[in-house]
What we know:
This protein is about 50% helix and about 10% strand.
Amino acid sequence: MATTAIWDVNDRLDRVIDYTTNPNKTENVDFSSPDFQSLRDVLEYTKQNYKTEKQFYVTGINCDPTIAYEQMSRTKLQFQKMDGILAFHGYQSFAPGEATPETAHAIGVKLAQKLWGERFEVVVSTHLDKNHLHNHFVLNSVSFMDGKRYYDNKTTYSLMRQTSDRLCREYSLSVIENPEKGKSKHHAEWRAEQEGKPTWRGLIREDVDKAIATSMTFTQFIAAMRKQGYEVKTGVKYMAVRPPGKERFVRLKTLGDDYAEEAIKQRILQNRIPKRPPLLPEPKRKRYILRGSIKTTRNITGLQALYFHYLYKMGILPRHRASNKRTHFLLREDLRHLEEITAQTKLLCAHSISSKEQLFIYQSTLEQEISALYADRKAIYNRIRRCKDDVQIAVYKEQISELSKKLSLLRKEVKLCTGIVSRSEEMKQKLLQIKQAEIHQGKEEKAHEQRSRSSRPNRQYES
């Protein structure tokens, strides 16, 4: 059984860059224009040695995989089509234990040849780093034959899935005979699910499920969604909701077949049928330890205080929350960035950084140290070129390795510093939005309580 998917790769798209960047590889100075950065990144990711057994399972179709980036770039330059979608990132996953690496790679190569082999450059990589073997395809968006673009649509994807199923049958692998419709996901959502991180679309599904579970009528469902802070648009062709703090509405039907308006109404009707819910195990919660005493944490100010307050509002600190109020949607969404936020908090605390001025000074110190280490490493490279003693060369290489490790750690800290500057402003904006929403909600609750009191009959009883 093989499942398939395909996404477009756009210029400097954050989700692709974060997912595919491979910092362990040396960048080639040829075709180093930032215009094609995402193309370079996705190619680097699909060919990583630790995923492909030292690139044994990497094949180029109409291109050499070792210089595929340069060849694809030349095609775009030749036909003057450097803008728009740079490439397409395809995916084909096999059931655990069903295919060998050789079989999975052979199917992937045949699939690429049948679909794109006559007109496009493609790199096929079989990744072995998960329980399930899976193929990645990097397809140039511009044809080397005629310069025409590849268009990904329902027809081409259907052909991809049908061809994949046919090849699976040829190799005696199982096939999903009746695939569910409406279950496709955006690349960022698929990625986050693979990494066990929440997505904002997933959070909407979670809130819709909760509202359905507590409703007996569609009107109650809408009220439950509004109570969770959503703006609900009804009476239109496609029902849509806007999460708290978001600018755009999301059509519920895009979340899957179970979330279309009619499907939601049918699910609500099921609530009227008495049934005993199964006992589910409690979800495991991650534990975070805050070292130090309450006395010391009370004295923190500036950026440190902002980060600690944000983690508190996210429900991470303290271990026993002072309030049982539901975490705001904007903060639940940020749980996907928890590792980064935690690392930034540790850096601020470790170096007692409270203001942006202190942060800039520390970052400047790091950058100076990086420059010095680069100079030291370059000097050692020059010594290697002049050295003819193998033993001494080995010593030099060990020194280079140590310097590279230090540089890697320092670059990570610089990246954290840069991230703190932008994230701290986002934190302030989100906390302000939440505070304003809480004040507005408090006023509405107070007004509702006053209306309820005034509507009650004023009865006096005489003794």
